Structure formats: structure tokens, C-alpha cells
Amino acid sequence: MKICRSIALACALLMPVVALGCPTVQTDHAIQDQLYSELKAAPNEMIGRGIEAQIWETWISAPDENAQALMDQGRERIRVADCARAEELFSDLIEYCPHNAEGWNQRAYVRFLRQDYGDALEDVSIALEYEPRHFGALAGRATTLLSMGRVEVGYVVLREALKINPWLRERHLVPLDQDI
Prior knowledge:
The chain has helices at 2-20, 29-41, 45-60, 65-79, 83-96, 101-113, 117-130, 135-147, 151-164. The chain is mainly alpha-helical and 180 residues long. The longest helix has 19 residues, at 2-20.
């Protein structure tokens, strides 16, 4: 009986910690798959960009209010070129929601802006583990590699991103004499 009370007390003490953590995001894979299919088949850039925006909305929608506040504040800090604070906010988001691909991707973008290319590439790799079809993270990897002078591998990665989203703004980075 004493053991049962100890277990019950331990569980009660642990419950608030679990409740305070980042909730698991329930992704509707059928809808995601449909959006990616529509994006790939979009007949023109205007339609493709609309579908791209829908996908981005799913990425920047955090799993709870705390995570969303960190996401929104971090994106605002990027907008006003406060990269140091943006990196802190995205680091907090990653600590709180380590499985959120967009937290990693946003911090990678900030690190790219700060020319911290090695850490940016590490963050992009983690983002892609959680969301392998993240064409924004792939484009970020490509532009980072290009900025590092690793041109050929940068083009290879950009081509991977273009297979997912043929309407990427970065598509114009591939020289005209090379196949996309």
C-alpha cells in the first residue's frame, strides 16, 4: 500500500511537468500530402505561391500559445533585424518544443543572416529530420552552401528543393545552362 502511494505521489508530482511541456502536434498527413501534390502540379507561379503560403502557415503555426508567442516574437525580431534576440527566442522555442521543425528552421535562418553558416547547416539538418519535405529548409541549406562557396553541392540541394516546390524564389539561383 505504501508503494502504491509513493507511485501515485510521484506521478502527481510529474504531471505538471508533462502538462507544461510542448504538446505533440497532430499533423493531418492526408491534407499535407494533398498540398504538396497540388504544389508540384501548380500550373503557374501565382497558384504555386498560394499553395506554398498554405504550407508555410502549417509550419509557422505552433502547437500551443507559448510556442506560438516565441515563434511570432522571433519572426518579428527577424523583421526588425534584431538577429541576436531572434536567435535567443528560437533557441527558447527549440528547448520548449524540440520536435518542432520550424523552430529549427527559423533559427537556422537567423544564423545564416549572422553568417554563422556551420550552425545554420546543423539546424537545417535537424529541421529536415522532422520535416523532410521542408522546401524552405532545403532552400536555406542551398543558399548557405552557395554562400560558403560550395556551389556545386548547393545546386544539388537546390534541385532537391525544386522537386518539392518548383516555384521557389531561389530557383533563379541555378544557372540557365544547368538543368533544374
